[in-house]
Amino acid sequence: MFRRGEPVPFAFIAEADRFRSNVTPPPRPRRSFGEVAGNALVGLTIVAGLVGSVLVGLPALQEDHSGPAKEHPAAAEHR
């Protein structure tokens, strides 16, 4: 983009991307022990739920080789 020779109204808006503030945000307040413990319990509950669902669903994903053999109809035996 080219720059004009004459002053432009509201030229400071075009220069705003280069502006850096020296004002720092206020520091965050420290979290209490209860908040930290609550967040840890929520995380543990989520992880335990995922692990439990995998453990409960795992038998359904395995092939069952101990089931009854394929039954053949009696009519197919004596042709």
UniProtKB/TrEMBL annotation:
<keyword id="KW-0472">Membrane</keyword>
<protein>
    <submittedName>
        <fullName>Uncharacterized protein</fullName>
    </submittedName>
</protein>
<keyword id="KW-1133">Transmembrane helix</keyword>
<feature type="transmembrane region" description="Helical">
    <location>
        <begin position="36"/>
        <end position="58"/>
    </location>
</feature>
<keyword id="KW-0812">Transmembrane</keyword>
